TrEMBL record, chain A:
Pathway where it operates: Protein modification; protein lipoylation via exogenous pathway; protein N(6)-(lipoyl)lysine from lipoate: step 2/2; Protein modification; protein lipoylation via exogenous pathway; protein N(6)-(lipoyl)lysine from lipoate: step 1/2
Assigned keywords, A-Z: ATP-binding, Ligase, Nucleotide-binding
A Gene Ontology molecular function term of the record: lipoyltransferase activity
Catalytic activity: L-lysyl-[lipoyl-carrier protein] + (R)-lipoate + ATP = N(6)-[(R)-lipoyl]-L-lysyl-[lipoyl-carrier protein] + AMP + diphosphate + H(+)
Function per UniProt: Catalyzes both the ATP-dependent activation of exogenously supplied lipoate to lipoyl-AMP and the transfer of the activated lipoyl onto the lipoyl domains of lipoate-dependent enzymes.
E.C. no: 6.3.1.20
Protein's name according to its UniProt entry: Putative lipoate-protein ligase A
Gene source species: Phlebiopsis gigantea (strain 11061_1 CR5-6)
Gene Ontology BP terms: protein lipoylation
Family note: Belongs to the LplA family.
InterPro entries: aa-tRNA-synth_II/BPL/LPL, BPL_LPL_catalytic, Lipoate_protein_ligase_C, LipoylTrfase_LipoateP_Ligase
Record GO cellular component, one term: mitochondrion
Residue span(s) of domain BPL/LPL catalytic: 103-286
Automatic annotation (TrEMBL), chain B:
Required co-factors: (R)-lipoate
Recorded family membership: Belongs to the 2-oxoacid dehydrogenase family.
Superkingdom of this protein's organism: Eukaryota
Localization per record: Mitochondrion matrix
Pfam family, one: Biotin_lipoyl
Protein name: Dihydrolipoamide acetyltransferase component of pyruvate dehydrogenase complex
Domain Peripheral subunit-binding (PSBD): 177-215
Length: 405, 516
């Protein structure tokens, strides 16, 4: 604080002395008028310096409090935010909070990076989009976000940007152009494809999604800078052609990192470039606001509720659109074809057909199918099931295995 | 029994009312909420989730459902206050733009029936979502829609809101060029860029100031030939002012004056001797030049007219009467004396000659001295001519000057062709000293303005060390700055001419012997 105050005074003093040098020299022509002219200009300069210093102080205090101790509330008054947290639950909720609370007409820009995780779109089917067994093996969580679109993989080599605007001012292409301009300024010859994704040639380096509400809309997207593309490929590879789902299917594209085109590109460099383009487009002069995941911030009711909601079953699985899954397996005694019909993560019905001719199998399996009805897909409460005989147990074991991955 | 019967009839009737959605005693109507154009060229969406179910009560702007289209997840909010009656599109189903999403029962008087058929919005003029993005350098038009906000603030997706008011706000045009920040500013201000095209920027680009000017439009002050100053309530705006007729005339004349090679010469004339005789001259102004108030109230006891009443000279216009003589008429008179000695300064370039004609230029000499006087009036800058200055007395010149200034002060100007003859004078005099205490000037000649122009300054008392045998003397001096047409006048000639003039001004006694 002391250092700050001294600094501020120094700025004032320097400017005061330098003031006379900055005055136009034409005043020399009117000697009778000179004294008044000089005084006025100097005074004005001092005033302006004070104002500027005051502004800088306010900003510094604001930022410092976030970095050092969370004593001030997170405000929606700024225009450019950079999240210092790598918690995807926090970041997605922060984005939503800023989206819902910022004054509808003001543009806003947010950046965040997440620890390794998979993020699926609002209306997507995790069983179709995420390689659940790989995710479990690597300990990578998957999260359903609030905007539409497809599935992406986040890690610290990926930077997410989010541009919020009033609904009337929102234009997908315009916001895409901002990011494109930034990427091009980093020396990469990128372009926008017809789906508004940033590509270099045919390879995607960024994916986008949008959310539109009554009076506001946002465009957010990824930017692959140095992501582990092998992990990405593995986690997003799902081979279930017989799972037919409503909702949005991801449009798969080959992806590449920005660093493959320009090795000197960094997260900070990309952030700065987008900030510059954003400032130019919307004439924003605010300082950047850095947000830390502090207890203070997390205690904001909207944010705490949002962070809590994201991992819960109701949101994560319960928002899954309707789908049918047809699968078959050959057992020692015959082949079974299961047809599971699910909606909102619940099993609506499960029909089990078998080629086995032995009589008790068919009604047996039918009974099992009926029991599964009304259960959570992939989270069936086993103790509810009645598994008296081996057939049922075998079939159930197979089904359980299939539903979990 | 009868009562029951009536009640049951009544309930039947109310049921019928609801189904037929016609005006009813109970005032409730069914409105179909149709999926309005979300923009961005979206033609259909999948309903992801209904947040409400019949018979939930909803208020306007409550979230009804969430739909998904391509990569956008859109929240649809209710346009009405009312009760959800029926969901027309189930979760997971696709709703086309313009198709009904749900029915809501509303109060009839709150939402009067309008043409529901027209609610299916036409495909947005800029179906951009399906276009292929070409080079990023291409500026594509933003197809956004600004929801209108008339008196009762209908919901942006209210299908009953007339479409014209929506599209009127779409800030797009076929080929409007504008920077993204300008587009954004225009959108925020609700300005249609199409109305501003082309703008003032490079290549017809619309600049931010064009939008600002448009917004300030009706407040712009009307321009008049007098070019009035902008109103003080608009200090920050740039206002475009048309040049008045006279000022534009000056513009044209000055552009032509660029053809004339000017050279200048400045000096000061010692008018101390003139100053000494001024009181005598002032006290002997002929009565006809005097305004009635300055004349003695009763005629003298002895008057020459008792012998023979000479025919009195014509009565002068009050505007031509003066009560105080100034230096200018005397300077003009002395100038005419010098002009008499110097024929060059009584000549002007023959008007029939022009730079494009192949003949050698000629100069026309006139017998009398015609001098132009520069007159700055509320209506503009004029140069009326005093004809034959050498034939007029100083008093007569003073009277003419007074009349000219009176005519010039009129709005519109009272100067006529009589005062502004086509031929003009051969010298022009500009009495700048009357306006400001300058030290020198560099006046500009215009074609038809003669061969030289002089700007006369203000009389000032100065200490002249050249006089008084080294001790110096207090002298009244007046600065004069000359510019002459070097095509006709040599520098030395001008200087010599000025010295001739000086000899008359600094020794006004000479006028006595000449016979004024």
């Amino acid at each position: 604080m002391l250092a700050l105050r001294v600094c501020w005074r120094r700025i004032c003093i320097i400017s005061f002395f330098e003031g006379h040098r900055l005055l136009p020299s034409t005043h020399a022509h009117n000697p009778s008028e000179r004294p008044l002219h000089t005084l006025t200009s100097r005074r004005m300069l001092l005033l302006r310096t004070l104002q500027h210093a005051g502004r800088a102080t306010k900003c510094l205090t604001h930022t410092r409090s976030f970095a050092v101790s969370a004593t001030t509330r997170l405000s929606v008054d700024r225009s450019i935010y950079v999240s210092k947290s790598t918690n995807p639950y926090f970041n997605l909720t922060l984005e939503d909070w800023l989206f819902r609370h910022k004054s509808p007409k003001d543009p806003l820009l947010l950046f965040y990076r997440d620890e390794p995780c998979i993020v699926i779109g609002r209306n997507q089917n995790p069983w179709k989009e995420v390689n659940l067994s790989s995710a479990e093996n690597t300990g990578t969580p998957w999260i359903r976000r609030r905007s539409g679109g497809g599935t992406v993989y986040h890690d610290l080599g990926n930077t997410n940007f989010s541009i919020h605007l009033s609904r009337s001012a929102f234009d997908r292409n315009e916001t895409g152009q901002i990011v494109l301009k930034a990427v091009r300024s980093l020396g990469v010859d990128a372009n926008l494809n017809d789906r508004n994704d940033i590509c270099v040639g045919k390879d995607k380096i960024s994916g986008s999604a949008y959310k539109i509400v009554n009076n506001r809309a946002y465009h957010h997207g990824t930017m692959l800078i140095s992501t582990r593309l092998d992990t990405l490929g593995d986690l997003l590879r799902v081979n279930k052609p017989s799972l037919v789902t409503k909702g949005v299917a991801s449009v798969r594209s080959p992806v590449r990192n920005l660093q493959q085109y320009n090795p000197s590109v960094t997260h900070e460099g990309f952030v700065q470039a987008v900030i510059t383009a954003f400032r130019e487009t919307y004439n924003i002069r605010d300082e950047v606001c850095e947000v830390e995941e502090t207890e203070e911030v997390k205690s904001i009711p909207y944010i705490s509720a949002g962070m809590e909601e994201l991992p819960q079953w109701n949101w994560a699985f319960g928002q899954t659109p309707e789908f049918t899954y047809t699968l078959s397996n050959t057992f020692t005694w015959g082949t079974v074809t299961a047809n599971i019909h699910s909606k909102h993560g619940m099993i609506l019905g499960c029909t089990l057909e078998t080629s086995a001719s032995t009589l008790p199998v068919q009604p047996n399996l039918q009974g099992l199918g009926e029991q599964l009805s009304g259960q959570k897909y992939g989270f069936v409460e086993e103790d509810v099931l009645v598994l008296e005989d081996d057939t049922r147990r075998e079939v159930w074991s197979w089904l359980r295995n299939k539903m979990s991955r | 029994m009868v009562r029951l019967h009536i009640l049951s009839l009544a309930s039947e009737y109310s049921v019928l009312t609801y189904l037929h959605s016609s005006a009813a005693c109970w005032g409730k109507v069914l409105r179909t909420f149709k999926l309005a154009d979300i923009g961005e060229g979206i033609t259909e969406c999948e309903v992801i989730r209904w947040t409400v179910n019949p018979p939930n009560q909803v208020s306007a702007f409550d979230t009804l459902c969430e739909v998904q289209s391509d990569k956008a997840s859109v929240e649809i909010t209710s346009p009405f206050d009312g009760t959800i009656k029926e969901l027309l599109v189930k979760e997971g189903e696709v709703a086309k733009v313009g198709a009904g999403l749900c029915t809501i029962e509303v109060d009839e008087d709150e939402y009067p029936a309008s043409d529901e058929q027209s609610s299916s919005s036409p495909p947005h003029p800029e179906q951009e979502a399906t276009q292929s993005e070409k080079l990023p350098a291409e500026k594509s038009q933003p197809p956004a829609q600004d929801p209108p906000k008339p008196q009762r603030r209908p919901h942006p997706l209210d299908p009953n809101v007339p479409q014209e008011s929506k599209t009127a706000f779409s800030p797009n045009a076929g080929n409007v060029l504008a920077a993204p920040s300008v587009r954004h500013f225009a959108k925020q201000s609700g300005v249609d860029l199409a109305k501003l095209a082309p703008g003032s920027g490079k290549g017809g680009r619309i600049e931010k100031k064009d939008v600002e000017t448009y917004l300030a439009g009706p407040k712009e002050p009307k321009t008049s030939p007098g070019a009035q100053a902008p109103s003080p309530s608009e200090p920050a705006q740039d206002i475009v002012v048309e040049l008045g007729r006279t000022r534009y005339g000056m513009w044209k004349a000055m552009v032509q004056s660029l053809q004339i090679p000017h050279f200048g010469y400045s000096t000061s004339l010692d008018i101390t001797a003139l100053n000494e005789i001024m009181p005598i001259l002032n006290s002997n102004i002929p009565s006809r030049y005097l305004p009635p108030s300055s004349k003695p109230s009763h005629p003298p006891a002895i008057s020459p007219s008792s012998f023979y009443a000479e025919p009195s000279p014509p009565v002068l216009d009050p505007s031509a009467q003066f009560h105080k003589l100034t230096y200018l008429p005397i300077l003009l008179k002395t100038l005419s004396k010098a002009m008499h000695e110097w024929p060059l300064f009584r000549s002007s370039i023959t008007p029939t000659w022009s730079p494009s004609s192949p003949d050698k230029p000629t100069v026309t000499l006139r017998p009398h001295a015609d001098i132009n006087i520069a007159l700055s009036t509320p209506t503009g800058l004029y140069t009326p001519t005093l004809q034959r200055v050498d034939t007029h007395s100083v008093y007569s010149l003073a009277s003419q000057l007074k009349r000219l200034s009176h005519l010039g002060r009129q709005v519109p100007s009272g100067l006529t062709l009589a005062e502004l003859p086509r031929r003009g004078g051969t010298l022009t005099v500009s009495n700048i000293g009357g306006i400001g205490d300058g030290e020198s000037a560099s006046p500009v000649l215009v074609p038809g303005g003669g061969v030289a122009i002089v700007a006369v300054g203000r009389a000032k008392w100065v200490w002249d060390v050249n006089r008084g045998d080294g001790k110096g003397e207090r002298r009244l001096k007046i600065a004069v700055s000359w510019s002459a047409d070097h095509r006709v006048v040599e520098g030395a000639e001008l200087v010599a001419f000025i010295e001739t003039w000086r000899s008359w001004v600094e020794a006004p006694q000479r006028l006595i012997a000449e016979g004024v």
